[in-house]
Amino acid sequence: MKINKDTAHKVAEFLLQIKAIKLSRTTPFQWASGWQSPIYCDNRKTLSYPKVRTYIRQEYVNSILENFGQVDVIAGVATGGIAQGALIAQDMELPFIYVRSASKGHGLQNLIEGDVQEGQRVVVIEDLISTGMSSLKAVEALRNAGCHVVGMVAIFTYNFQVAKDNFDAYKCPLYTLSDYNSLIETAVEHGYINAEDIESLKNWRENPANWNAVL
After folding, report:
1. pLDDT tens readout for residues 90-113
2. Which CATH number fits domain 5-214: 3.40.50.720, 3.40.190.10, 3.40.50.2020, 3.40.50.970?
3. By the 8 A CB rule, do 111 and 101 touch?
């Protein structure tokens, strides 16, 4: 996965400034999976800051045009990719749809909301990639609807090997504006963490399920 280093560090700096990403090695966060983590990421906070929101939208668009060229539809993944996707679609003057995590339990029981036609070139928008499986379920739903999913763009990825393996298995190219390595470099540069914390943070990324054992 190719990443623009200048963009990656700028996005990481923004995420740290607005506390969309918090780092705490000594008082870790607990994820829904049960993992103890030194990092918590909530990219929805970017929507509350116009300067940050605009920069991220522009970089999403740049990534789409650079990596996929012209596409027919922007698809957001519920819920984090919906607002980002709508902003991108508005900027690119393209149709927007979004994919639910599960079919709606009433009415038409839609899984995909919005109008989509078979054969359309679709790029999927996410805000955050961990293992990637919830995002790839959206890719599968779109493919089942006859769409040609050209790939996915997200704000941030933890660079887990399992995510790389999952995207490779689905044959879905992934591009992100920033990543875990860029975040750590930026956090050290701007004094959010000390250099002595780096080894522990790298250990977590390599083995998050058992990270407590290496604290």
Report:
1. 999 999 999 998 765 544 458 999
2. 3.40.50.2020
3. no
